Amino acid sequence: MTARHKHKPAAAAPSGTGPGQSWKTAVLGSLSAALAALRQLVGGFGTAVPALALLGLLALTAVACLVGVGLLLAPALLRAVHALARRERGRLSRHGVEIVAPDPAPVRLRLALADDTTRRELRWLAVHATFGLLTGLLGLLLPVFAVRDTLFPLVWPLAPSGATSTSLGFGTADSWAQASVVSLLGVGWIAIILGLGPGLARLQARPAVRLLAAGPGTDLSLRIAELTATRAAALDAHAVELRRIERSLHDGTQNRLVSVTVLLGAARRMVARDPAGAEELLERAQSAAEQALSELRAVARGILPPVLADRGLAGALSGLAANSGVPCRTDVDLPERCPASVEASAYFVVAEALTNVAKHSGATGVAVTVRSRGGRLLLRVEDDGHGGADEAGGSGLTGIRRRIAAHDGVLRLTSPHGGPTVLEVDFPCGS
Asked: How far apart are CA 239 and CA 135, in angstroms?
């Protein structure tokens, strides 16, 4: 007898993972990468302009050294070069390009000429003042060209007769058809931005990665010590969190459950001889059980709020704002999800900050702003209170700093007397 094989129907694709969704995800990812690259290129232009000015001043100083005047100016210019190099390392780190800084370089001319770090920074200065300036200029002009040429058919009727049609400075449009052709050039600019933007940003950053990083012979003991300290702080913060959870369970939920047990035992003994009294005890036991359940849920939310997994950081922060003791406004722009540990840390940082605002600031309003840019999560909490926040004053800022340090993040606090208080956090969260 001939065997018959039945073909099972193919399993349906999971919801949200079809070709249309994949295409949409790819487009949004390319757009996000291109925008991040443009921001990085424009930021590089912002350091390339002072690099060009410094390069010119160094050339003039070198000539002036022949008559002795330049020897007096050299230390100040070397300090400026080192400061610009530090600024460039910080800028790139905000875009996810980590550069291990070398030891501080000397500024005395004789020592600087023999110092490898100074020579490397001067080489970077020359490259960044030329190549970095060019790539940064492209990052500025390409979006302008794209918008100008794409929208040219809309403004063509208003353009003067014989005016140049394209951003490249050639060609004129005498009809709607010719004006529409110009918009194709704008689409080409957009394609160049999407396709080449991230590569240009990497090319602009490559000289800094190669020349501004610590050399192979640099002592990295300070960096190792810093990482050891942040790891110890993370372990301490974890221990404090465990003690808080244990204390909440012991002093709250456990006592409620003991009370429930006692009340149930008493009710069982009274049910035969005093049904009314037993009913009252059962009601008290039910109330205590409900309070224990509520406290247990609060402890669970304190460990990791379920809303983070369900609605992401934006939804979780909206919930915090709704329950804040001070009117709170949130502005969250996260094109994609960050790692769960980073989202949880950001959530608890905002929760602690809002608690501090409600307890200590006397503020009438607070604003929470969150952005994800170039592999960094940037968080800002600003209130209009009386200021004067002090990390040593036991306001929870030490715990916030430890939680941030565990992710190798940066915390900046500005709180002059009279206000406002601004808390800024910079988390690395991957690109």
From this structure: 48
Answer whether 341's CB lies under 8 Å from 407's CB.
yes
Task: Identify the residue whose tokens are 């003067």.
Answer: 160
Query: What integer best gives the mean pLDDT of the chain?
Result: 79
Q: CA–CA separation, 113 vs 91, rounded Å? A: 27
- Check: CB of residue 50 under 8 Å from CB of residue 84: yes
Q: Which residues lie below 8 Å from residue 123, measured CB to CB, with a gap of 6+?
A: 211
Q: Cα separation of 117 and 113, whole Å?
A: 10
Strand partners, 332: 370
Q: How confident is the model at residue 7 (pLDDT cuts 50, 70, 90)?
A: very low
Residue 215 has pLDDT above 80, yes or no: no
Ramachandran angles phi, psi of 335, nearest 5°: -60, -30
Q: What is the pLDDT of residue 237?
A: 61
Q: Helix, strand or coil for residue 423?
A: strand
H/E element, 63: helix 19-64
Is 201 in contact with 92 (CB distance < 8 Å)?
A: no
Rounded-to-integer distance, Cα 215 and Cα 211, Å = 8
Supply the Cα-derived Rg of the chain in whole angstroms: 31
Contact assessment for residue 359 and residue 385, using Cβ atoms and an 8 Å cutoff: no
- What is the Cα–Cα distance from 109 to 73, expressed in whole angstroms? 10
pLDDT at 408: 72
User: From CA 418, how far away is CA 423, in angstroms rounded?
Assistant: 15
DSSP 334-367: -SSPPPHHHHHHHHHHHHHHHHHIIIII--S-EE
Instruction: Report how far residue 378's alpha carbon sits from residue 426's, in angstroms, rounded to the nearest whole number.
Output: 5
State CA 11 to chain mean position distance. Answer: 39
Instruction: Work out the number of other CB atoms within 10 angstroms of the CB of residue 151.
Output: 13
pLDDT, tens only, 387-403: 887 766 555 677 777 77
H or E, element range at 223: helix 221-248
C-beta neighbour count of 393 within 10 angstroms: 11
Q: Say how far apart CA 135 and CA 45 lie, in whole Å.
A: 8
DSSP state of 162: T
